[in-house]
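WARN no homologs supplied; continuing
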Amino acid sequence: MNFFMVLNGKFLKQIALILIAAFFAAGFLYMENIAQLPVFSTKSGPKAIYRGEKDIALTFNIGWGDEKAGPILDVLNKEKVKSATFFLAGSWAERHPDLVSRIVKEGYEIGILGYGYVDYSSVEDTKIKKDILMAQEAFRKLNINGIKVLRAPTGHFDDRTLNIAERYGYTVVHWSVDSKDWTNPGVLAIVENVKGAKKGDIILLHASDSAKQTAKALPLILENIRKQGLKMVTVSEMIANGNTQSTEVR
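OK structure emitted
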């Protein structure tokens, strides 16, 4: 009987340890998923888009520099990519009207990336409004009208940003796939970061001078997208063509 109880006790202890380990592993995975969950809408107010239902959207942020945008446009032209969205800082657009004009002439959508590099989640409402209005005026002076989409300059925003953007007629757009190209991890690393992109994804890329490897990575990214038979669209086309996804801002 004593021998049986010792064995039984060891067995129960092993089961308990397995259950505890499983509990912590599940908890870790749950918290990891929560940490990575996009947070993009208020409970009952305006929403920020981070992915769609179908197709795929290439988006490029430009905030400074004049060396990388041209080569990226050259690649898109060579690869016969007709649809993409360029989120431009108003201050950059003022300094580089020729590049802005080229983006427009080649048929790509323009979105607002604020005016300066302002973290909308850490400043008061008046500064968010001022930054958006300054960007709006910069594009008006360049005769670019009808802009519908806006991206927070640093990628950080909260429900105040959503409400203010809606008031000015903009939809806030985030992303579901981050290429991390601005870190210059290597061409193959950028391609790998985007490789998992699928139907409905909005891909974040950069055409600022800080992104030194994006133009070289772009043909391989496009090749992978085409292998999946996905159609490339602008963000506004994606919004118009199907359901979009968002989650609650906390």
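The chain has two domains: 1-35, 48-245.
OK
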